[in-house]
Amino acid sequence: MTAFLPVSEQLAILTRGVVDNPLGAELALRLGEAETSGVPLRVKAGFDPTRPDLHLGHAVLLTKLRQFQDLGHQAILLVGDFTALVGDPTGQNDLRPRLTREEVLAAATTYTDQAFRILDSERTEVRFNSEWLGAMTSFELVELLAKQTVSRMLERNDFAARHADNRPIWQHEFLYPLLQGYDSVALRSDVELGGTDQLFNLLMGRDLQGKYGQRGQVVLTVPILEGTDAKIDPDTLRVVGKKMSKSTGNYVGLREAPAEMFRKILQVDDQVIWRYFELLSTRGSEEVAELRRTAPNPMAVKALFAKEMIARFHSAEDAASAEAEFKRVYSGDAVPDDVPEVIIESSGAGVWLAKALSVAGLVKSTSEGRRLVEQGGVEVDSCRTADAQMTLARGTYLVRVGSKQRRFARIVVT
Known about the structure:
The protein is α/β, with parallel strands linked by helices.
């Protein structure tokens, strides 16, 4: 029999950072029942393995699942290896490209290892939804389809927008919310967690549980974390910016090298870092509030957060080493020991510096590289240049961009 904290204390932890809690009274009721019976709640969070790497954006949801786990409830990590083949249409204006089974399985192999940098593997129930969805008969699939109407599906914003614009909605896209919802039936979940973009799908699970004779799950959504380039809107004081994504380059990967994680986190806006604390730090709300009141400077605050994340996903020793390396390189004129080498072939007399910066991954585009050069933010072999037309002849160059957040590359023009 599990001993639980009082419901009020559990709610204070579990609702921190939550966006949607439409069944708050029922959540309190379920927690109270668990406290009385000693039977943990079954709490589910699912991931479709569409990419091999997780980042801090994914960690927001996993951290909330870990909070339930630490409070004594049963955490269920659901790997959507079947639903990933269908493709989640959430937030899509057009048909999402479908993945092959080989692509899905390749991504799935890394998911649990990364998730267990947050979750306790000994206390986590790991399930794959191909276990029941792959075994579903045609008759059972028709029965599932019969549980929901087309008009209900068209309540989804993305489907409604495509329908209004006469853009196609494919049959298998309608199927996805039903399949995800059936996962809750198969797992008999008491609570399901998801991002704010998943609210429709989470409520679909609750609805289907009722139609299959089960008690409907409580649902909670967590924010979709903005990337490292997000800012605070001065008028609304809200965080604005694109969500953290590997495709936009504004992410901090869970498997990235500690020094790289440290560098990226220190690039986060001085005010946005508090949102990261709220959603990802294990520090209590009162401790974060006190830190916000007494912190000596923003860089020190971001360093604390960076060390906490590196310790969680690597080790405390790695966190200390990353901080020392950052201070050595970025607080002085030192050059890192692990400067990446990039070889660029030239068919002419050399390579345009702005293009070389882009090829080396120091900037996102040639135009950004040109602007950075013009602004005096680029050094070649320790010499600052503002010549936007500069060409690197054949040879080897140590190139540095930025000032406070410096990045290096050894560019070899052949």
